[in-house]
Known about the structure:
- The complex is a heterodimer of chains A (112) and B (117).
- Chain A is 0% helix and 52% strand.
- Chain A has strands at residues 4-7, 10-13, 19-25, 30-31, 36-37, 39-44, 51-55, 59-60, 68-73, 76-81, 90-96, 102-103, 107-111.
- The mean pLDDT of chain A is 97.
- Chain B is mostly beta strands.
- The relative contact order of chain B is 0.32.
- Chains A and B meet through strand 6, strand 7 and strand 12 of A and strand 5 of B.
Amino acid sequence: DIVMTQSPDSLAVSLGERATINCKSSQSVLYSAKNTDYLAWYQQKPGQPPKLLISWASTRESGVPDRFSGSGSGTDFTLTISSLQAEDVAVYYCQQYYSTYSFGQGTRLEIK
Amino acid sequence: QVQLVQSGAEVKKPGSSVKVSCKASGGTFSNFNVSWVRQAPGQGLEWMGRIIPIVGIPNYAQKFQGRVAITADRSTSTVYMELSSLRSEDTAVYYCARHPAGAFEYWGQGTLVTVSS
């Protein structure tokens, strides 16, 4: 099974500042034949189901603000929020779908 | 617009079983994966298994093999997840999610299952 590890577990950032969340997989999730990483990012707010933000490591879903971006390849990935807004307070999860499915443990993002 | 509507909250005794439903509306149902993901109180997301209704053959996470059964009824666009031999550690919110081969695009609202004597 592929284990996903996020860092940090929690993060406090000032409004308007950059937030960076890291995700590392225990093995590569890059499908070489398609040169595509099978990695997604989700946002979950209290009492709600997760919301898909980014798939294929860097493809933003329709309607997701462009302050959210994903990067990385192979085993190391990053979710960046370029200018933190109050509504971005949530828990963020990475997920691999290269080999069945598994999630990181989550990163709690708060306002400093 | 795709909507997944799950059945209501359940309270179960240890050792019993629970069956949660996930009814889809809007969009195509049979050709996509439907996965079940659970979230214990204050914890992260845990994938349990999936089914493609048109195929009807489920895949389960090893942790739940032998204790979970995922089925689909194409006539009603409903997927079911049954978990047996319940224990207190199974207390969680259970979500269904519809997705292609990749990320989980659409999620149900969640069903709280409480296991308590």
